Amino acid sequence: MKQYILDPKALLGGVIARDDDQELVQLALQKDNEIPPYQSDAIILLIVLNGSAQIVTEQESIETQGLQVVRIEPNETHSIRALENNTTILVFKQLTHDLVFSKKLRFGNCCL
After folding, report:
1. In the chain, what are the domain boundaries?
2. Strand, helix or coil for residue 83
3. Which candidate in 48, 72, 77, 106 could, as Cys together with 39 as Cys, close a disulfide (CB 3.0–4.6 Å)?
4. pLDDT tens digits, residue range 53-85?
């Protein structure tokens, strides 16, 4: 088990943890700070912890706020813009999305 502590005073944020399968990133943004359009071959979950943000893809734009989750598919171009000061977003990048798990693991019946 590992525990990570987010820094609410971090300037823009940064990578919290990384291994071969996942990357965990903290974004600490002020109003109108923007992560320019980019894409990744990972499944990305954006969890807005506080504040609000606009997530824009080629197909749509979502305004999201504290305690909401947005999933971005692999290779989906997107940008992120803070709509409020002190917007904190936790980003999970699942780098190995092609892995196939057994039904026991997938449905939580491990070790039966």
Report:
1. 12-97
2. coil
3. 77
4. 999 999 999 999 988 999 999 999 999 999 999
